[in-house]
Amino acid sequence: MALLIVALFAIPPLYGQFLPQRVQNYLIFGLPALAVGLIAGHARLLNIGVGATFGVAAYTVAIVAHHVTFNPFVLMVASLASGVIVSVLFAVYAVVATGIEYLLLTLLTTAAFASLPLLATNLTGGENGLAIPPQGAVVVSFGLDPIQGNGFYWLLCFITVFWCALSSYLLSSRAGRAMVAIGRNPVRAAAMGYSVHGYQVAVTLYSGLIAACGGWLYAIGNTFVSLDLLGLTNSVNAVLYSLIGGVDTIIGPLLGTIGLRFLSEYSGMQSTQSQLYVGFALLVVVYLLPAGVIGGLRQLWLLRLRFRAQGVPEGEEPLAATLAREGGFDATFGGVTDE
Amino acid sequence: MVAIAGLLVAAACGGGATGGSGSTAATGPAIKIGVLDDQAPLTAVEGAEMRVNTDLAIAQINASGGIHGHKLEAVYADPKATPDQAITLAQQLVQQQGVDVLVGAVLSSECLGVENLVPRLQVVYVSSTGCAAEDFTAKQCNQYSFRITPQGRQVNIPLSQYIVNSYGKKWSIIYPDYAFGQSQLAAYKVGMQAAGGELTQIIPIPQNETNMTPYISKITTDGSISGLINTEVGADLVRASQTLAQFNIGAKMPIVGVFGKERFAGTYPDSLTGDIGQSPELSDPPTENKYDAAYHKAFTEQLKKEDANIVTALGGVDKAVPGDLGYEAYTAITSLKLAMNQSSFTGKADTQKLIKAMEKLKVKQGADFPGGDFQMNASDHQGVATTYIAKINKQQEQVLATLAPDKLSLIGTCTAK
Fold first, then answer.
1. To which H or E segment does residue A225 belong?
2. Are B337 and B328 contacting, i.e. CB atoms less than 8 angstroms apart?
3. pLDDT tens per residue across span B223-235
């Protein structure tokens, strides 16, 4: 993992040729995908509202920068706060609804959010979108130019690694394991004394904060926001990225984002029917890797260990012990057994 | 981990098709034009017209020797009608593909996003098909961005003057109740006020409304209204036109609406007969305009070389027409050609010279602007062009009036700097 982090920080700037700018775009959209992975993959709350949180945070930056101030700290705080406020709404849904009702509530709310900018077009630019004035383009990003140099890229890398590390730590903690257990069987978890609603609210707010961070970074990186950031398309894309990469992993959503966005951009330059290729790729992954790329790799690893374990005489060492000893799964996944 | 690193490196190597037809041998390095050509279902017609007409213009330029011996080469990218993709791809085209000029992006939000970016990329950006937002040159203009085709109040004001003078002062308007329709309403309000008329009846219709009857039946037909302005587009326009025909509104008053066969796969629905509209390019070339006839013929020949989905989107080789959507794309490239020739443009380093040449463009009707005359306004980088007011008569377009470029209004007070 340390090597991967070093590679992330070092390889794109060394390679140059637009790679840092391309990867920073992937990382920005990887954060809402990570949020989906946490709330849907681990906590089993299928929240379609990630796009709304992302979009509101982005619009907050643009509106405040356009009408009030370019101060990057003010913009960051305002953006994250607005995202958390939106997440409170989705947290309420988690308390009052479950299953399909919860899904529909988040879906309809996200669809409604897409119309919000049209209610105050002087403030938001309406369907035309809203630009951060050119004189503030670099000021809002702490003086780091997103399209030149590597400073903004390293800032993004640091923020992404921070959220991944924090999420990994929380998942392996007692609270994280309780949250996963609640996601798998809330009735059993409640019977064991865990506050189901409390954990659901906490994970909703936490994932909302990550998505809001993505929205903040998007706005200061692109200096332009538009309606599509708030709509269902952005939310569904985050869900797709997460599913393709591996919804119940930390690194999977980021990989899914990189893979799908790269495929979309590349095929768009090669063909006038790029969406056909993206759709085909999605079909292949859904049928061949239903657990996502990382999930599929993990299953292959488990299969390999099982084949190896079959050589051990029965009764001498349980398979679970073999897996724990050779794969280190108990420590890595916080004791959660593979179902 | 190796796979992940490989994926990152592979991401650096992605992209870079050399689309278009400028692939003949060059005497000097090719001048690259980055084209943001949306191929999403929402923008299928616009994207197809942009592709065909960009390829056509570049092929013609290269066939005549290019720009001082340098061939033009189109590098296409598909933002899929999403502004964030348009911004990312615009940046990629310039910084990775090394394009010298940017063109395209259909939706207003896309072209405004790219316009906001180009001062930092320091390349000229010319909008192509679409990009109808007034803000592009009325509010958000900058020294690098240009728009060739007149938009919004530029054409609505003279059109309003014509219809007020021809038919009367009091008008009804039906419009789709979302941002596009609301902007059309605002533009016609300005136009009517300038013309001494007024919109006495305003009827908003929800977007994608399937039952138009409750709205169309509100239109006053007792003779107190001089005419109807219909700003519906797409499928809503077809439904509105059919309902208007059911109520025989067209027989009772003139109807002003959207124009252009290319929006209807090359064939006007019968329900549009009698509608009046405006455009810098007629769907069928007037017999006396040899330049337009040559343009239409070349368009048809170019269309035969394009992908099947492009041809289908435009209604097939036999029916497809460039229309004003295609004309926007064609003249975006021909205007660049003229400015590049004047400024001896060879690449991005000559951007400032290209900007000065674009600002001074003044072109008579000819092969480069077959529809009519053209002139660029140096202050806001908004073009004005000969505009035709015409009436639809089944599949024919009968020209009622011709507006010279100097008859079109200023779009705003922005100063490109």
1. strand A224-225
2. no
3. 999 999 999 887 7
pTM of the predicted model, to two decimals? 0.86
What is the rounded distance in angstroms from the CA atom of residue B390 to the CA atom of residue B277? Answer: 6
Classify residue A281: in a domain, yes or no.
Answer: no
Q: Which domains does chain B have, with CATH numbers?
A: 15-150+287-385 (3.40.50.2300), 153-279 (3.40.50.2300)
Nearest neighbour of B309 by CB, restricted to A15, A126, A272:
A272
A135 close to B (CB below 8 A): no
Q: Which of B4, B78, B135 minimises the CB distance to A128?
A: B135
> How do residues B354-388 score in pLDDT, each as one tens digit?
999 999 999 999 999 999 999 999 999 999 999 99
Inter-CA distances, A183 with A46, A199, A251, B80, B404, Å: 11, 10, 20, 36, 69
- What torsion do the CA atoms of B369, B370, B373, B379 make, to the nearest 10 degrees? -30
The answer to whether residues A215 and A76 belong to one domain is yes
Which H or E element spans position B45?
helix B44-63
Compute the distance between CA of residue A122 and CA of residue B150 in angstroms, rounded to an integer. Answer: 24
Partner-chain contact B7 A19, CB within 8 Å? no
Name the residue with higher pLDDT: A259 or B35: B35
Q: How far apart are CA B185 and CA B195, in angstroms?
A: 15
With beta carbons less than 8 A apart as the criterion, state whether B397 and B324 touch.
no
Mutual orientation of helices A72-96 and A196-222 as an angle, nearest 10°?
Answer: 150
B7–A258 C-beta distance less than 8 A: yes
- Kindly determine whether residue B84 and residue A218, on different chains, have CB atoms separated by under 8 Å: yes
Contact flag A272-B9 (C-beta cutoff 8 Å): no
B310–chain A Cβ distance below 8 A for any pair: yes
With respect to residue A127, please indicate whether it lies within any of the assigned structural domains. Answer: yes
User: Is the confidence at residue B236, as pLDDT, over 50?
Assistant: yes
CA gap A168, B225 in Å, rounded: 69
Cα–Cα distance measured from residue B367 to residue B217, given in angstroms and rounded to the nearest whole number: 47
Residues of chain A found within 8 Å of residue B145, distances taken between Cβ atoms: none
Q: Give SS3 for B82.
A: coil
Q: CA-to-CA distance for A309 and A94, rounded, in angstroms?
A: 42
Sign, CA torsion B158/B159/B160/B162: positive
Tell me what the mean pLDDT of segment B141-163 comes to.
92
Q: CB distance B11–A22 less than 8 Å?
A: yes
Give B242-261 pLDDT, tens digit per residue.
899 899 998 899 999 878 88
Tokens representing residue A130 in the block: 């809203």
Dihedral angle sign, alpha carbons of residues A311, A315, A319, A322: negative
Task: Tell me how close the Cα of B399 comes to any Cα of chain A, in angstroms.
Answer: 33
Q: Does A276 touch chain B (CB under 8 A)?
A: no
Which of B15, B47, B109 has the CB atom closest to A227's CB atom?
B109
How far is it, in rounded angstroms, from Cα B195 to Cα A212?
Answer: 49
Q: Which of B 75-104 lie inside 8 A of A, CB atoms?
A: 75-80, 82-85, 87-89, 91-92, 95-96
* Co-location of A199 and A144 in the same domain: yes
Tell me what the pLDDT averaged over chain A comes to. Answer: 86
Share of chain B above pLDDT 90, in %: 67
Task: Say whether A36 sits in a helix, a strand or coil.
Answer: helix
Number of helices (H), then strands (E), in chain A:
16, 2
Q: Does residue A162 share a domain with residue A105?
A: yes
Is A228 within 8 Å of B140 when comparing Cβ atoms? Answer: no
Domain span at residue A53 reads 2-276
Going A147 to A148 to A149 to A155, the CA torsion angle's sign is negative
Position A323 scores a pLDDT of: 55
Nearest CA in chain B to A19: B12
Interface membership of B112 toward A (CB under 8 Å): yes
CA–CA separation, B286 and B282 (whole Å): 8
